[in-house]
TrEMBL record:
Coiled coil: none annotated. The chain crosses the membrane at residues 51-81, 128-150, 156-174, 181-201. Pfam families: ExoD (PF06055). It comes from the Bacteria. This is ExoD-like membrane protein. Keywords: Membrane, Transmembrane, Transmembrane helix.
Amino acid sequence: MTTADTNMTPTTRPESVAGILNRARFSLDGDEVSVRDVVEAMGRASFAPLLMLPAMIVASPASGIPGLSSICGISIALIAFQMIARRDHVWLPDWIMRRHAPRDRIRKALDWLCPPALFLDRVTRQRVCMLVEPPLLIVPQIICLLAGAMMPMLELVPFTSSLLGFAVAVMAVAMVTRDGLLVLLGLSTIVGAFALGQYLLA
C-alpha cells in the first residue's frame, strides 16, 4: 500500500470494488493474460487492489486452473509483506510476472465476480475505520500475508484455498473501502478455513 493509501483520511473517497475489476479488464488482450499484464493495468502503486484481485480470483471458479491458487497465494503473501514494509511500489519476481492464464478463463472469472462486487459497493461504507488505519492496519495485513503463504500448501485440500482467498479478498475490500467491519468477517472466514482444513486432513 502506498503512503497515500495508508494515510487515507475520513474525507478521502474510497475506490469502488467494481471499478477495480473494470481496471483489471484492461489487461485482457491476446489469448493469454500474464501477471505482468494485470499489475501494469492496475498500477504498481495500487497495493490493496492488487491484493484483492488474486484473492478474488482464487475464490472464483478460476481457482480450478492448475497451479493458479499457488501463484495467487505467493503473490498475495509478497504484496502483503510489502504493505507491512510500507514500500511505495509493488515488486513481484519475474517468474511470477511471466505466469499466464487463458484470457477466456480470467474474463469469465471477472464476469462471475461482477455481481458480488456491485453488491459490496452497495453495502460497504466507512465504519470501524480504526481497523483499517495504523496502527491496527497491520493486523489484516499480517493475516493476508499468512493466508497467502498457506495457499500453496493447501491447494490440494478441497475448498480451503478458495476460503482463504475469500478471506483475503474481504480484508482487501475492507482496506479499499475503509470498512473495518469486513475485517471481522475476514477473521471469521480464516477461522472457518483452518477448521475445515483440519477436519479434511484428520
